[in-house]
Design brief:
Shape: globular
Structural class: mainly alpha
Distance between the termini: 61 Å
Strand content: under 5%
Number of helices: 13
Oligomer: single chain
Order of helices and strands: HHHHHHHHHHHHH
Helix content: over 70%
Number of strands: 0
Largest sheet: none
Radius of gyration: 20 Å
Amino acid sequence: MNKNRELAGFGTVKNRAIEEDPNNAGLWFQIAFIKAKEKNISYFRLALQQIISAPNFYDFYPDIIDAFNQALIEVGMYQDLPRRAVALGFTYSLSYPPMNNIISFCKEQAKENAELTQLCLDAGRRIAKDSTLIQFQQIGLAIQKAIYQVLDDKEAQQKIELINSSLNKFKHKYNEAKNLMMFDLELQQYWFEQLKLFGEKKALKQLHTEAVRLSANPNYSPCRK
């Protein structure tokens, strides 16, 4: 099928991606989930190709937090700290598509389709490498692992498991700082600015450093702010 004709038939989701940010692999990643759920091989293939080749990778996570925060203001939730906590919760639960769709579809196709096998593998590598969100990086790793299971490449599977384990340890290391910011609006705002500027990993490191600095003050009590 001609690629231009494929693009022409992608529908509303495609149009939004093309018009708003056609060079963003992060947006095509979201489209790939939709097409995997629909089991639409042609458009799924196209989305994977765009994930691999698009020059940018932006996850929209800070924008989604902002959008939820603004929506909550508009419905009358004016207290900053609880509102932002709710916005973060909404964002976390809704911005991550169910990864089983794309993983299962890649694994299913890999048994019969050599082209999609390689596309899934390369897309998984791109996501794991260039996403600024740990959860998305882990989805990229899970896609790769699913393909390596089909290929019976145990050594590659072990390498993926080690990287994934390292990411889990990284997340757990900063849990206390993340919990603290739910009680301290200024700390939460600081984390959010770091997230927008540098992505999740560096934002967590900066948050931890700031939380340690604040906690060293015996008079610091976020619950009394």
